[in-house]
Amino acid sequence: MNTHLHITAWALAIILLLVVIVLQKTGKAKGAKITHMILRLDYLLILYSGGSLLTNYLNGGGPMMTEAIIKSVAGLWVIVAMEMIAVRTGKRKATKGAWIQLIIALIITIALGFGRLEGGLLP
């Protein structure tokens, strides 16, 4: 259950980030601000579900515990990068570095979450 909630929250966050960027670039500041606040609420859902999943790994111990911690740190990095992109786009500042960070952190997170850790989609 927590895994599905976590994946759904991440998918929603990525969609909301793209909507925020589009609204900001088209000059719809009020809509962008509202959507950005909803995105921030979604971060809380991500943190809750991710924390629950991490707690399951920490309680179980085992060889995957270190990878679960690394995935959690990379997941926090993804959230920070998404927030940097949203804020910098609103301020009309350069976002190239934040996009690079987002892509790197997202690759690490997805590789560990789906490929390595138990409960992922890949064997």
UniProtKB/TrEMBL annotation:
- The answer to whether keyword DNA damage applies is no
**Keyword Lyase among record annotations:** no
One Pfam family name is DUF1516
Ordered alphabetically, the record's keywords are: Cell membrane, Membrane, Transmembrane, Transmembrane helix
Which parts pass through the membrane?
Answer: 6-23, 43-62, 68-87, 99-117
The organism's place on the tree of life at top rank: Bacteria
> What is the name attached to this protein's record?
DUF1516 family protein
